[in-house]
Amino acid sequence: SPCSRPQKVCLCPFLPVHPLKVSTCLYIIQHPAEESRVLRTVPLLAACLPPDKCKILVGRRFNEDRYPELATVCRNPNTLILYPGAEATNLEEVAVMSSSPSVMIIIDGTWSQAKDIFYKNSLFRLPKQVQLKPSISSQYVIRTQPTNTCLSTLECAAVALSIMEKNKSIQETILHPLQALCSFQLQHGAQIHHSKEHLLKNGLYDKPMPKNKRKLRRMELLVNNVKI
């Protein structure tokens, strides 16, 4: 079945009957560690879109010799990479000025894995860098996020596509199977995972504080609500 899950927790009824019609093509750059995660969101995203609009490349290092198609995509002026930072433009501003079909690259992994992939692959610094406004909280409540506004790959794609396609219903359609996934897991014993930011601010963080000064500083910034 499309969702590849046991019948008891099948998510197929929550997927769109037909793949969504979109003009934007997604390239998901997936860290190899994500392949082994049982509750990853990319398969649900792929099940919502046509195969030619959601292409998944797994790896840590991407160069022009091994990935000529990706290199061509990265050099295309209509290609965007969704990665927040000082160099990134808000996607809403880019979408207003864009009229032609775009390609968007999204890195799938933990924040540290995504950072490693972004900075150690020069190809990913060729496209225009964009980010989402932190206006919604993650609904992926069965996995711990660093901050309250960090989103899963599926959620990032859902929001980005709804902006690029100027169609809010796309976001609702793609989030539907994620909401069902979390509901099933909670019904079968999973616990709601608050963000690390929430746990630290409310004195609920029960793990040993890191000895590494850099990691400790990042946690202090989270508590003080400083953007990192």
From TrEMBL:
Residue span, DTW domain: 1-190
Catalytic activity annotation: a uridine in tRNA + S-adenosyl-L-methionine = a 3-[(3S)-3-amino-3-carboxypropyl]uridine in tRNA + S-methyl-5'-thioadenosine + H(+)
InterPro entries in alphabetical order: DTW, DTWD2/TAPT
UniProt KW tRNA processing keyword: yes
Keywords assigned: S-adenosyl-L-methionine, Transferase, tRNA processing
tRNA processing is among the record's keywords: yes
Family assignment from sequence similarity: Belongs to the TDD superfamily. DTWD2 family.
Protein name: tRNA-uridine aminocarboxypropyltransferase
Organism of provenance: Melospiza melodia (Song sparrow)
